[in-house]
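Chapter review: from sequence to fold.
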Amino acid sequence: MNRRRSRQSRPAGPGTNRPGLLAVGGALTLVAGVGFLAAPRAGADTGLGSYSLYASAPGVEWTYDSPTAPTHPELDAEIPETVARLQPGPVGYGLAAVAWPGTLIADGGSTAGLVGLTLPPPLAANANEPVRAEARTGSGPPTVTNDSYPGTTMTATATDQEVSGVATMAGSTGPAPSSSTGATSSSSDVRLEANGLVTTVATSTVKDINLGGVVKIASVTSTASASSNGARASVTGSTVVSGMTVAGQPVSVDQSGLHVLTSSAPLNAIASQIVNTAIAGAGMKIEVSQPTRSVDAGNASYDAGSMVFFWSPPGSGGQTFTATIGGATIDLQAAPGAAVSSTGVGATSGSAPAAGTGTAAGSIGSAPSVPGSTSSSPVGDTTPAPAPASSGGTPAGRGLSVSRASYSLPGGVSPVWPILFLLGSAAIAAGLRRLPDRVLEEGGTACSLEGSS
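The token string follows.
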């Protein structure tokens, strides 16, 4: 009796491309996983779909250069500098430094490793700038303080809800000849408020400024602040210059130049001649950096403007110095979650007063101060940004509720990622359902007992 037992392969039908299904399913789940992890998610208390907060408050930025320098400029440093950043995760970074040469130089030891220059760990650590305090969310203590250097204090904080940097110093000398500053402070702060707002504030104050023995300024205060609920943002700021003199003559400054503050025409002409002679003799030029502002729905950015001094001292062999004073900067990006109110966004607490407030405050580019007085001048326009026009004929400030047309899961996560994950899982399941049979089909052999009787 002849017996033949063989496993016959079944014809392939529609949808039986198991490797293809597995590949598609794997790709979908991978994309869903990466998208879910990368999707911006706000903190539980914000109600926002996403946010990105940044604040920086340099006091004086010095640059120095000379024709024989191997690199240009030869020196570039902020004295002092603070930075605060916070993004979903949360991922926060706070910096406070009384002298900051920039990230590339400050992290020279770490940068060397990135470009393939291997340094012994002790040498690499010593190559990094030590005069600072840094804090990062999820890494190390939430607050770091560095007061190791006399006359200075640096504190950085980074938590899930707030990131800040504060730096103070008693004063500094140089780098330009006969130049110095007195008490100086810088602070930057970004936070997620319990009421659903996100806020950014940057403030720097520099006192008793002496530039080349020619220009003296009692103080310069630069402030920028913003707040947002994701639907509407508010921003304000200013750079205020107080008590500025050139060769002992009280002056104000705006985009058109220096203005001598005297009440008498003959005295004004004499004072102007003194000022112009002193500026020309120092090889100095003075300019004003105007503030810049942008507000778009829940997003806002602001640069408070600064005073910039360029000069090349006579007989210095072409050496040049630049001092940029002020320039507080903020950038706030916020998107709403499922639904947020378009009202309730106001100026951040602790922000600088608008133009014209306070004692003897004028505006660079606005009406001059009272002749004969020592001026206090905010640099540029400080008028708060106009509120976005309300839609649908509903007056602004009436509790208008703005809802998104799209849908999101709690925390602002898009439902696309879970759907892709489910589709990918289904494709994998379909690919695996007949996998054992397919393996047997492809691996089975015919066994023939034919030939025996």
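Two observations follow directly from the output. DSSP finds seven helices and 28 strands in the chain. Residues 341 and 401 are 5 Å apart (CA to CA).
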